[in-house]
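name: query_chain
kind: protein
chains: 1
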Amino acid sequence: MNPKRAIHTILTALLIGASFASAWAAPSKATQTPSVTMGSVAMDIPVEMIKRMSALTNHLSLSTNLNIRFRPSPNLGSAVDDLGTGQTQIAYLTPVAYIEARKKYGVIPLVAPTAGGRPHFALVIGVKAGSGITEPAGLKGKRFAFGDEKALLQRAAVESMGLKSSDFSTFAYLKHYDNIAKAVLAGDFDGGILKDSIADEFRSKGLDVIGSTAPLPSYIFAVHPGLPVAVRNQLRDALLALNKNTPERAATLEAFDKGYDGFAVVEDSAYDTVRKLIQPFQQ
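structure:
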């Protein structure tokens, strides 16, 4: 991005943030509860995303003095721009989406979900059980499914396992991990890239994992730079308090993602490893 354009974009985002920050600072008598809109990258079809995120927004609304609603985004790029332009004030982003939003709009990292107490996940390659494909190299000349076309980390992950897009007879972008898993099990594709927690959900349905990346920094909740610090802290503290210590909290986490057990504070530097991985794929 042109440096002048980048500076202009960030300044615009900050001005937008200042406008809704002033609205929070002095809520009208008719609306005493400040409103926050939460966004997310598209992990599933819209109906399922609303179900997953509504459990979380409802819990956060009850844990804070904020009125939190969910605004779905159709793809990675929209989730980034919605957060950067203030359409949403907090968003659940993939590592690549966060890196783009940070560079383009100066968004602020808040917390990341944990699995096994650590803010990490892995990308894996899944195939249909009984296919005879037992390692990534066995997919050369086969059909392969990716998710979002802008998800550069997926391509980097596949290459880290010894494969390139040119190795496949054909490949396609199916948007969501659930779509990929279902397409592989249906025989429409011989293999596909999946988030580890999604692969785990489909193991009982006949999915095998034949390759995995090293641990990667987790997905992340980031906030608009103009979000008031007091509101930001309320959201952070409410997310950090969400764990599996009570049935209600456990149910909220399970609805959001069955693989998560809590949240941890993360710094921007935690995503430097991903920046290095995707650098060869950036134009």
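note: The chain has two domains: 3-119+217-267, 123-214.
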